[in-house]
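Figure 6 in text form: structure in, sequence out.
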């Protein structure tokens, strides 16, 4: 059995085109569509993510401004910046990215966000919506949205399946668990720092990884017909066309896997859903403004 590689670039491109169209419509109504990218820390990885976010925004006509606070920035200063941006009507959405070495905790930083501007989908309100009804949520965690769209696009059924997620629990794992649970999958979260028992790998129907040591998951770990998703960036020399797709999965896994999402393939789709979150937030603000105008007209009119 030779595994099929799952392709997502066409889907990502179609969403990008649609987001550019919607941004243009919002701007025709003089509705600002803008993102504040807040970086807590100055790691190169964080800077790359922010740069990719900013470039994607510019491509579809969204204004993007980066605010970098070094890892030693005191909590009150971080609070003040996030509160000011949350209350700024000219800001459609806030992209909060935090380095693990930052002085301010992730929990405290997220608490300062207006959940209606949480375009990264990391606020407790956003994650709670995933557990209840992800289809109606305006701001789904972009990577989670991309994973769920991949399952739908490639007709991968997870009802009753066992899904092993090996990733950072707070930033990736919990949103994925929430979304997969709504599709009646049994989602098992294995933090990166923990050692995953071989039996757990072998019982999984779908394995999702991010940040796992390259090539560390081999064919001997897996059951026949497993589906493999690597959500990370490709390493040096990795190619989507190579057996195993590069990343966390060793080349020989292609002999036992049913399908593989290669390292790097999901990046464009994640970005597309990030842009969709921005547009959804801008539409929310536009709807709020329209409701306020209508209310003021009703209150101020001399006619009864």
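Output sequence:
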């Amino acid at each position: 059995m030779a595994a099929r590689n799952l392709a997502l670039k066409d889907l990502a491109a179609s969403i990008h085109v649609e987001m550019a169209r919607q941004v243009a419509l919002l701007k025709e109504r003089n509705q600002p569509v803008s993102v504040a990218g807040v970086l807590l820390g100055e790691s190169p990885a964080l800077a790359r993510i922010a740069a990719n976010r900013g470039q994607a925004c510019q491509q579809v006509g969204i204004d993007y401004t980066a605010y970098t606070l070094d890892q030693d920035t005191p909590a009150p200063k971080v609070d003040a910046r996030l509160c000011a941006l949350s209350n700024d009507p000219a800001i459609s959405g806030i992209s909060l990215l935090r380095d693990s070495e930052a002085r301010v905790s992730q929990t405290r930083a997220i608490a300062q966000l207006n959940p209606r501007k949480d375009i990264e989908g990391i606020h407790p309100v956003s994650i709670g919506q995933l557990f209840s009804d992800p289809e109606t949520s305006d701001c789904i965690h972009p990577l989670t949205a991309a994973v769920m769209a991949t399952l739908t696009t490639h007709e991968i059924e997870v009802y009753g399946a066992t899904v092993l997620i090996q990733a950072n629990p707070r930033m990736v794992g919990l949103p994925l668990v929430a979304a997969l649970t709504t599709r009646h999958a049994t989602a098992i979260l294995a933090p990166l720092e923990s050692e995953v028992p071989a039996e757990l790998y072998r019982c999984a129907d779908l394995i999702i990884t991010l940040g796992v040591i390259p090539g560390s998951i081999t064919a001997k770990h897996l059951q026949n017909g497993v589906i493999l998703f690597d959500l990370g960036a490709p390493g040096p020399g990795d190619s989507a066309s190579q057996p195993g797709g590069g990343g966390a999965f060793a080349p020989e896994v292609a002999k036992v896997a049913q399908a593989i999402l290669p390292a790097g393939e999901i990046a464009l789709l994640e970005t597309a859903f990030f842009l969709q979150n921005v547009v959804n937030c801008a539409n929310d603000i536009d709807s709020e403004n329209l409701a306020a105008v209508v209310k003021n007209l009703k209150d101020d009119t001399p006619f009864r």
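Caption detail: Residues 267-300 form the longest helix (34 residues).
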